[in-house]
Amino acid sequence: MNSHFLSWYEEADIPGINSDGKWEDFETGFLYCPPSQTDRKPRAPVSDKIKEARATAKDFGGKALKGSAKQKNWGESIRAELLKKVNLELARVLASHDIFENASAFIAIRTKSVAEVESMLKTVLESTKSHNIKIRRAEELNPGSRITNKDAIKLYDEANEIQQQLYSMI
């Protein structure tokens, strides 16, 4: 018997096996439910190096990366190294832009030179500015929640196309 069952058994007022062959507390009617195999395992401790890398990213407006534990650790260390090598404006883009929210983005660009990464970040920055301008113009042309203005629709479509191009860069 495992400790989970023993804990339940000790807490049950009138434990017993019901007609379905399952353990039940006959006073409350609660069944014993063993922990499933898919229950989450405790997180592995994060190393000081990764904590430092996250702190560096946070200084530039970044959040913790998404992905598996291994991906996040690897991505955080790649991101921290890149943040040290690019200028302040590009570091902010690298740390906080939505296209860099997954660790896989940093793993994908790990072999690029600093010049290639800077060029990509400049493209991301300019594309994001263009996207935001189009969204603002579309909102000015169509100030309601329902989009009826044809020019606004065209601007939203162009903005969405820019956003798709950004996400396909990585």
Which range best describes the helical content: under 10%, 10-25%, 25-40%, 40-55%, 55-70% or over 70%?
Answer: 55-70%
Structure classification: mainly alpha
Could you give a short account of the major beta sheet? 2 strands, antiparallel
The general outline is: flat
Strand content: under 5%
Query: How many DSSP E strands?
Result: 2
Q: Cα distance, first to last residue? A: 51 Å
Average pLDDT rating: 88
- N-to-C series of helices and strands: HEEHHHHHH
User: How many domain regions?
Assistant: 2
Number of helices, where a helix is a run of at least 4 consecutive DSSP H or I residues: 7
User: What Rg do the Cα atoms give?
Assistant: 26 Å
What is the strand and helix layout of this fold?
Elements (H helix, E strand, L loop, with lengths): L2 H9 L3 E3 L5 E3 L22 H12 L9 H17 L2 H9 L6 H6 L5 H28 L8 H19 L2
Antiparallel strand pairs: 1-2
Helix pairs in contact: 2-3, 3-4, 6-7
Summarize the structure in short:
By secondary structure, this protein is mainly alpha-helical. The chain folds into two domains: about 1-40, no CATH class; about 50-170, no CATH class.
Describe this structure in words.
With 170 residues, the chain is mainly alpha-helical. The chain folds into two domains: 1-38, no CATH class; 48-168, no CATH class. Helix content is 59%, strand content 4%. The chain is built from seven helices and two strands. It has helices spanning 3-11, 48-59, 69-85, 88-96, 103-108, 114-141, 150-168, and strands at residues 15-17, 23-25. The longest helix is centred in the C-terminal third of the chain and has 28 residues, at 114-141.
